[in-house]
Amino acid sequence: MLRSIGRRLLGAFTTNSRRAARRHPRRQLKFEHLESRELLSATSISDGSFEVPSLAASTFQYAPNGSPWQFVGTAGVCSNGSAFGNPAAPDGSQAALLQSTCSISQSVYLDAGTYSLSFMAAQRAGQKHPQEFTVLVDGALVGMVTPIGTAYGSYQTANFTVAAGTHTIQFIGFNPLGGDNTAFVDEVAISPTAGSIGDGSFEVPALAANTLQYAPNGSPWQFTGAAGVCSNGSAFGNPAAPDGGQVAFLQSNGSMSESIYLDAGTYSFSFMAAQRAGQKNSQEFQVLVDGAQVGMVTPAGTTYESYETSNFTVAAGTHTVQFIGFNPSGGDNTAFVDEVALSSTVGSINDGSFETPALAANTFQYAPIGSPWQFTGEAGVCSNGSTLGNPNAPDGSQAAFLETNGSMSESVYLGAGTYSLSFMAAQRAGEPQYQEFEVLVDGAEVGTVTPTGTAYAWYQTPNFTVAVGLHTIEFLGLNPQGGDNTAFIDEVQTS
After folding, report:
1. Spacing of C-alpha 281 from chain mean position
2. Would you state the pLDDT for residue 462?
3. Which residues contact 437 (CB under 8 A, 6 or more apart)?
4. What is the DSSP string of 235-249?
5. Which of 175, 177, 146 is closest to 75 using CA atoms?
6. Which helix (H) or strand (E) holds 21?
7. What predicted TM-score, i.e. pTM, was given to this entire model?
8. For position 43, what pLDDT does the model report?
């Protein structure tokens, strides 16, 4: 039997809950203007704002010399107010121009790693067709952009991985529809992206208010089929984005994916998701890493809620995360996704306070999807005040429940060593017998618990020793005396 711990164990545990995640800001890509740096590192673009050579006001010049960029064909630099009618540069007073089929390039020394390029771009006003351009690194395509309008918008390439050395960055005017068409480019910057999601809030490309776009280019995400980005107030009736002013949408069987470089280790993805209002059926979607499913989500309603995948373990290298619309009931159904974030989970329980998915007040749900826990049988999550009669959760507003022989499990990456599990547990009030449950690691029992009462108390398993790797933690309802008996569990932690 386990002993009840009458006090909180301080300093020894971490809880990877949504609430904890909000206390610790996520890492996000930060792009700096070159002019603000006193020293240029090995990962810097030279003159990303095209301020050299300095042109006279209201002029332009093809292939100017004295620049770190190499210009080929009808490419060059223009100052504000030039005859091209270029909008004012977002940084400084000059921008690059890509007219018709042409190119600009620069050789940059990069340390070995994974990077992305960001920049601002706009179309020339009054031209018959939009200009399109590609972005290449060492001749390999990392982005294709058709600037949305004549005002500058933000764009970002897909992630790319390089060895240490000198690499060539190239912007090539593509001009697929022919004619005299021009795009302007400014604020070119490069940033390392190892372990980061590029544009997890889907703010690039920046759409006009109240619009949507299928498969937009200029994003680090790749969209396939009926998937894309929508701004607040679009015809989809999407609720306002929880972060920024745009979200992704997965309509029917549409999908989106991104390649990211990860160090060897164990990770999980978190995100916000919601259903489209007024549709006949709910949209469902899968989350996959390198083709293996790590989560299946049916957003609970038309307001954004938090979801988290199961833990997954990868070797060092480039890996593909994919969100695929599943649409099992058929019809025109759509889900919205925002705030996609990646977390390292070595040694941590994912969502040990059972806050995802977020349930409506006073409800419970058997085997909810969108949780890193796997529930079997009569097990699930309940919010405070549910008809199960659960006491208020000690952390957050939700707890897990094990009814009769229900079980829940999670895979956790642990370094080689000795650990124990701690958690809070309570009985359901008014039941004829007490619920009892086992705690197992990789199928081996490490403790048996009979919560002492209907108020939460602390419990801790004996120590157990594991080799480095992925291990399965399971809570299994035993219900030895039969009947409808339930225990509640919260704040599951490793130490």
Report:
1. 25
2. 94
3. 402, 448, 449, 475, 476, 477, 478, 487
4. TT-PPPPSSTTEEEE
5. 175
6. helix 18-23
7. 0.69
8. 65
- Cis bond upstream, residue 53 (ω within 30): yes
- Cα–Cα–Cα angle for 151, 242, 492, rounded to 5 degrees: 145
Partners of 466 in beta bridges: 417
135's tokens? 């972005």
Instruction: Read off the tokens for 310.
Output: 């199961």
Secondary structure class of 403 (helix, strand, coil):
strand
Task: Report in angstroms the alpha-carbon separations of 473 from 19, 292, 321, 348, 492.
Answer: 22, 20, 25, 11, 10
CA distances 487 to 89, 353, 366, Å, are: 63, 15, 14
Identify the pLDDT of residue 457.
96
Rounded Cα distance between 492 and 13, Å, is 9
Distance of alpha carbon 340 from alpha carbon 359, whole angstroms: 20
Q: What is the pLDDT of residue 470?
A: 83
Q: String of b and e for 138-155 (b: at least 16 CB within 10 Å)?
A: eeeebbbbbbbebebbbb
Q: What is the DSSP letter of 76?
A: E
CA nearest to 93, candidates 183, 173, 186: 186
| Phi-psi label, residue 193: left if phi above 0, alpha if psi -120 to 50, beta otherwise | alpha
How far is CA 258 from its chain centroid?
Answer: 10
Closest by alpha carbon to 441, among 426, 461, 416? 461
Alpha-carbon gap, residue 161 to 156, rounded angstroms: 15
Per-residue pLDDT, 34: 31
Q: Give the integer Cα–Cα distance in Å for 263 and 440.
A: 29
Structure tokens at 152: 């500058």
Q: pLDDT at position 265, please?
A: 81
Phi, psi angle pair for 21, to nearest 5°: -60, -35
The beta strand positions in 124-173, using DSSP E, are: 133-137, 140-145, 153-156, 160-162, 165-173
pLDDT of residue 235: 96
Specify the DSSP class assigned to residue 361: T
pLDDT at 416: 85
Q: Would you report the helix, strand and coil content of the chain in percent, each value rounded to 5?
A: 0, 45, 50
Going along the chain from its start, the domains and CATH numbers come out as 1-16+351-495 (2.60.120.260), 18-28+194-346 (2.60.120.260), 34-192 (2.60.120.260)
Residues of the chain short of pLDDT 50, as ranges, are: 1-42
Q: What is the pLDDT of residue 348?
A: 78
| CA-closest candidate to residue 210, choices 230, 226, 194 | 230
pLDDT tens string 291-317: 999 999 999 899 999 998 988 888 888
| CB-based burial, 52-61: b 16+ in 10 Å, e otherwise | beebeeeebb
